[in-house]
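Fig. S4 source data, part A: sequence.
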Amino acid sequence: MTENATTRHVLTAERIVVGIDSSDNAASAAAWAAGEAVERALALHLVHALELPGVMGAFVEPAGYAHAQHAAGEKLLAKITDMVRELHPTLAVTSEVSEIGAAESLVELSESAKLVVTGTRGHGGFAGMLLGSVSLKVAAHAHCPAVVVRGEQPDEPLNEIVLGVEPDQAAAPIRFAFETAARFGATLTAVRAWQPYPVYGGFYVAAEDLEARGEAEKTDLIDQLKAVSEDYPDVKVSTDAVCGNPVPLLICAAHGTRLLVVGSHHHHVPLSVGVGYVVQGLLAHCPTPVAVVPID
């Protein structure tokens, strides 16, 4: 990776890393990440990947191709840097051009970041940022929470964090949601989406049993939150257990809020697309920024 002069002084600083290409979605993601960096008192680090062709293939680069791509990447980063500094004049911003793949770059940089942020669509340097490639790979492999931002965000979202909680949910996503809510003075809404169990013959349990199941799910949800909520007594928490498909239910619950938080098991194998259907559905369709917190 090629870093600018100021980047070398903040490599160990706490920061948010955001992937940049020439798309409007990437610019929106950078603007969101910049605001988040200011509120979290972090630096912002912009990275643009060149996606240069491999030397072992049949394709031969034209003379000066890599140099031209690098120069274009630096120009793009300068443009986005100017944009975020205009929005937040005191924000510490650094940047770099990477000659390795977009997903590889972001996953590598996530080891020294508090958050890594991507948009959902793109072209140019982050050619794989169509959902199903870079965003999914980063969500599956990042070492820190990965946030996917879809397009423009409201100027004044509801000051609320929505947390999707599965049965036997690990503590990491819960703690991240509480920490975020505490930092922003936001309310926290924890949602458990559950499905009825089919009985013998394919029929579902009776309505009165569904009601009892719903109460049991909510009780279990509250119990799951207790260990972490005791560390954040000032965070106002509400809970809801709803029968149905978790993807539309969580999207609806998070509509107009500042962030939706879910967990996903961290993949330790070479980069591959491998988040579950719920996370994939949320990243594909949720207009609210989605934070995917790694679970080891």
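Fig. S4 source data, part B ends here. The CA atoms of residues 1 and 98 lie 4 Å apart.
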